[in-house]
Structures are given as C-alpha cells and as structure tokens.
Predict the 3D structure of the following.
Amino acid sequence: MNCVRFDIEILVCFTVASSVLLAPSLQMVDETLPLTFEGTEAHLPPPSSQFTSGGRTKLAHKLSVDRHAIFTLVAELSQDNADHFCKCPTWTSYGGRIIDCCTELKDAMPKLQDVVSQLQEVAPRYDYDERTPGNGYRSLICIADTVLLHLVSILKACAEQRTQIMFRITHCCKELEAYATVVRFLCESFSKVGAVFAFLC
C-alpha cells in the first residue's frame, strides 16, 4: 500500500484500536478493530457486527497500512505546528518550547523509521513458530506504533485548537515534550538493539 500523502480521514480506518487513547481528537468508527501495519492482516469481527453508527459504510475484513505514511504524517504535522508558532509567537515561553519539540520530532522521524525498519527485518527470525508471530522485537515495534499514533492525535489536536481562545498551550506543550522524550529514548534504545543484533550475527 503506497501512500504519498496520508490524510487524517484515512487514519481513522486503522487507529480504531487506540480509540480510547486518541479520542476526542479523532472520530472513531468502531472500537473493536485491531491496529495493523504494513500488510499485517487483522481478522475482524463477523460482518454482522461491523455496521457502524451514523450510516457509515462497514469496514473490510482485513486492514493494513503503510507505516511510512504515518512517519510522514507526524513529520508534516510537526512542521505545520512549528511554522504556526514561529509566525504567531505567544506571550509565554511555551510557544518556543513547542517549536523546539516539533522540530525535534520532525528531525527524529527518519531515524526512528530507519531503526524500526531494521527491527522489522529481524523480528520474523525469532518468532516461536510460523503460527506464533511474537517476540521482543515485535513488541518494540508495537511500542513505536503506539507512540506514533499518540503523536498524530496530539499534533492534530494542537493544529485544530491553537487558534482558539481556550487553547491550553501549557498542556499541549507538556504533552509534546513528554513524547519527544519518548521518541528520543526509542531512537537511542532501538539503535543499541540493532547494534547488538549486528554483533551477534
């Protein structure tokens, strides 16, 4: 699945497993659907349980998404928020801190994407068997996926609310700083895991 531009409306089709974490910034379709990435097939509930409220069309039986599109979306949202606060400075220091966080997140996406791709290549070698695709490498990838989806939610909420009079810039700033720290840790730890694997091989 090749996505040049990944629109937020498409995002709701596969972030439904994280609906509790992503709400209310995203309008979820169905809370029962699992999250899958890059060709990993998700077996959904029976067709009778796939009808959604509001007359929306039901989802297909299997979902997959290009992880590269998520990295691109995070980078684009980070750049958009950074540009906004550069052009519209605030009377507090939080605006500058958001700019720093968004810039760091944007710059970190290529590195994180690279190390996740390396883990993807390693993970299948350590599955228990062909029918049990699970190991520590896959767990690390799942952590990265969850962090990315949280970032999409926070950055999108910031972009939508930043011009409102009741925008909580302090809350948004602290959320972004927290996730920027997590992303920094993931880049460093994943790189060390990859180095250890390369040494063992």
About this structure: Residues 1-52, 59-63 have pLDDT under 50 and may be disordered. The chain has six helices and no strands. The helical segments are 8-11, 19-22, 67-87, 94-122, 136-161, 169-200. The radius of gyration is 18 Å.
